[in-house]
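Form P-L/3: holo structure prediction, ligand alpha-D-galactopyranose.
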Amino acid sequence: WNYFAERVTDKDIRASADQIVASGMRDAGYIYVNIDDTWEGERDASGVLHTNAKFPDMKALADYVHSKGLKLGIYSGPGTRTCAKYPASLGHEEQDAKMYADWGIDYLKYDLCSFIPDVMEKQAPNDKAAQMRLMVAAYEKMGKALKATGRPIVYSLCQYGWDSAWEWAPALGGNLWRTTGDIEARWGSIYDILSEQAGLWSYAGPGHWNDPDMLEVGNGKLTLAENRSHFSMWAMLAAPLLAGNDLPNMKPEIKDILTNRDVIAINQDPLGHQARRIYNSGEVEVWARDLKGGAKAIAILNAGSDVYSTHPFHLDLAKLGLHGPQKAKDLWTGKEMELTNDISIELASHDILLVRIANPK
Ligand code: GLA
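OUTPUT (holo model):
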């Protein structure tokens, strides 16, 4: 969605699947190819939703994606219309879920959008609490419908985090839930979303994740440092890593970011601990995350604007619960280094130092 938006076609999805294999992304761990919005056609007299001309045969597309060793994601919403104004699932939840399962769909993103005027504002005008109950019930309904199909389908809630989705989404089968409004391919948007995740670490864990939205790595005018920092921080957040760029035409340096195995290993660490913001020194932020086997990942991010292009920054290991010099691996250069309190780290604007400490002391 972040690159193709409503232009996406069957051909683009196939080309993306091909590229996920050819680029090494599949081997690096990417699994799902998600169509997002605008595949929908019209409902017929028996309520069956057909695809539109851009997606001539969804079952054949799912077969193709599966033949590449990947899985297919689709999109709908609890209202009458999706965000792009295509038909959504209101009143057809079980029917649609069954159809997805018959097609071989593996992932559903379910987007609130027109449910707000269609149901929430109509049935509970001026009653926020009642509106929220209607919203939660709608997500519960699709969660049950997916479960009833018997096919494992990842359930992705997209309602921008309203009513603290992280508190109730896992109980109704949600595997991930958006925590904010839509991301954009500019640093300000990425940084704002990052900041909003700081209080949510306790809600993430295996099988149920905070979703700070799909990646913008490789999109817009983001600098290499910004692309690297964005990817590093989404990895630290244990966020779903959904590439949102033009895969068949990505530059080698973007591919290198998206396939950095060490960074992906942080993201996929089995403990599933989302990083916490430990402290900041001016505009430099220090985030940390505990990893399996007692290891630790630390990210030092220069969130400062262009005006302050470099920050000499002094590390405070005690604040990270560390004692004395630490052997660490810089996950972007691949080099071993030593972290000490008096180390002077120069970070360009919006750049990051991401390290893994195998044996923290
Ligand atoms: C909303 C979602 C986006 C995308 C579009 C599709 O804006 O938040 O991620 O799915 O709808 O219309």
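COMMENT: The pocket of alpha-D-galactopyranose is lined by residues 1, 36-37, 82-84, 111, 158, 182 (CB under 6 Å).
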